[in-house]
Design a protein that fits this description.
- By secondary structure, the chain is an alpha/beta fold.
- The protein has helices spanning about 20-25, 40-45, 55-60, 65-75, 100-115, 135-145, 160-170, 220-225, 270-275, 290-300, 310, 320-330, 360-365, 395-400, 415-425, 460-470; strands spanning about 5-10, 30-35, 125-130, 150-155, 175, 190-195, 210-215, 235-240, 280-285, 305, 335-340, 350-355, 380, 390.
- The strands form 4 sheets. The protein has an 8-stranded parallel beta sheet. A two-stranded antiparallel sheet has the order 5-6.
- The protein is globular, with a radius of gyration of 21 Å.
Length: about 475
């Protein structure tokens, strides 16, 4: 089967939901679910009562029924929790996570991929962040058990992932070296995962999915192609206008008049280097246009990756009320996307949509109590006594300083984890009564969505995007 021309981006926490990936895959393109925080997302869906029964239906297909039952007993609330009740959070990941968290993570990744693939023969991928290392092994295994077709990963150097896919496909025990701040070359910090603790009798090998690395430079691509632990099957080349986290500019950091990082000639990618690798590659970052797709193909690309245009369609996981408010701004030409060099605790520039009622507003950001209760962007660090601790620049400042952190690292940091959960209607109500506010992210080409809003309406579907990009357009969707 030929490679897909369009890869739907793996956006945010749950924005690239199974419903969106399914809609894209049914049209012959690569639908992608976001693999970030799926264990928390599934736990919250169950606490909301799983209104359409999809999560429970997928859990019924999980190959370890007793494990699935334990998940339901822990998190499912018939009829849903009270509107003002807090969600029960699973434990946070560490180098030695509790068994219940490992089981929940395997099950959650299985559920998301199972639902995305259910009822059709299209291809489904899952997107992970290399920087979020601690959940990686059980997450990958859950996706493989559900028959995922592609694994995509960026935000780091994912050299270890290809061999892990090879091993997990055969249900073999695996380990992953973890980046720990302040560790010496003599230190050896790993997480380990044994599929035999999930399935007593796993049976024959499962399909090994293709591995696509998300990169921003030809240097990284060449390194991955030649020095990875196993087979790399292609690349997504992501430019600085793409939504979410961006690679920082090369060289000294310079900011424009809006306080955004300035990208220059050094940040342009040499496509000839990619062509020499003789592996398929897709271009991303403001490529959601038929002419741009045509240009990408002419340059030797297999196609494009598009994110923002899918993020606001009906099938995406973003809360409908947020979609409508952003789309109303787009219709009026009032949308604004700011590349914030400080917002994310990850340290990468992060694109934020200016939107009232979200933590993009300075007053709401400052009013939020600094809480780190999800912990996906925590960084492991080696304490002076040799043990490993975990810290996040978005946590309470005094707590961060007690963990040997630097005060300047905390300035301007926002809680991306809680903000992105609120984007999909699963925001936490903290014990203090504080309701977490959204933090919406999009690419620079957010205004491009206006062409899909026919007759001033505030909705469109994934099929509209694909038909437009492939040139199968109606007069109302003709290119601008």
């Amino acid at each position: 089967m030929s490679e897909p021309v369009i890869i739907q981006g793996g956006m945010g926490v749950g924005v690239s939901s199974w419903k969106l990936a399914k809609a894209v895959a049914r049209m012959g393109q690569l639908g992608v679910v976001s693999g970030t925080a799926l264990e928390n997302i599934m736990a919250r869906r169950l606490q909301m009562g799983d209104p359409d029964g999809s999560t429970r239906r997928a859990l019924n297909a999980f190959p370890n029924p007793l494990l699935a039952q334990r998940v339901l007993e822990k998190y499912f609330i018939p009829g849903g929790k009270a509107w003002n009740a807090s969600f029960k959070n699973p434990p946070m990941f560490s180098l030695d996570p509790p068994v219940e968290l490992v089981e929940l993570t395997v099950a959650a990744n299985f559920v998301e991929v199972f639902l995305a693939k259910e009822g059709h023969g299209g291809r489904v991928g899952i997107n992970y962040l290399e920087k979020i290392q601690l959940p990686t092994l059980p997450s990958l295994y859950g996706a493989l058990l559900a028959g995922v077709d592609y694994v995509l990963m960026g935000a780091g150097i994912p050299r270890a992932i290809p061999a892990l896919l090879d091993q997990l496909a055969f249900h073999q025990p695996v380990e992953l070296k973890i980046n720990v701040q302040s560790a010496s070359s003599a230190d050896d910090f790993h997480v380990r995962f044994n599929p035999g603790e999930i399935l007593d009798n796993p049976g024959r090998a499962v399909k090994r999915p293709k591995f696509i690395a998300i990169v921003s430079s030809e240097v990284l691509a060449v390194t991955l192609a030649k020095k990875s632990s196993g087979r790399v099957d292609g690349f997504v080349i992501e430019g600085p206008t793409a939504g979410g986290h961006n690679a920082p500019p090369r060289g000294p950091l310079h900011l424009n008049e809006k306080g955004e990082p300035v990208y220059g000639p050094k940040d342009k990618v040499d496509l000839e280097a990619f062509r020499k690798l003789e592996l398929p590659f897709w271009l991303a970052g403001s490529y959601a246009d038929p002419q741009k797709l045509k240009e990408a193909l002419a340059q030797g690309a297999a196609g494009i990756q598009a994110g923002t245009v899918f993020a606001y369609c009906e099938e995406s996981g973003m809360a409908r009320r947020i979609k409508r408010r952003v789309l109303a701004k787009v219709l009026r030409g009032r949308e604004e996307v700011h590349t914030d060099p400080l917002a994310s605790p990850a340290g990468f520039p992060f694109k934020v949509v200016r939107l009232e009622g979200t933590v993009s507003e300075e007053a709401l950001y400052r009013a939020r109590p600094r809480i780190c209760d999800l912990g996906y962007l925590r960084t492991p660090f080696k304490r002076k006594d040799g043990s490993v601790g975990y810290r996040c620049p978005g946590e309470p400042v005094e707590t961060y300083l007690q963990k040997e952190g630097k005060p300047e690292d905390t300035r301007g940091r926002k809680c991306v984890c809680n903000g992105l959960m609120a984007d999909i209607g699963l925001g936490q109500i903290q014990k203090s009564g504080h309701e977490e506010k959204p933090l919406v992210t999009s690419g620079d080409d957010l205004g491009r969505i206006a062409k899909f809003l026919k007759g001033g309406g505030l909705s469109y579907e994934a099929a509209d995007v694909i038909q437009y990009l492939l040139g199968v357009v109606s007069p109302s969707l003709s290119p601008a």
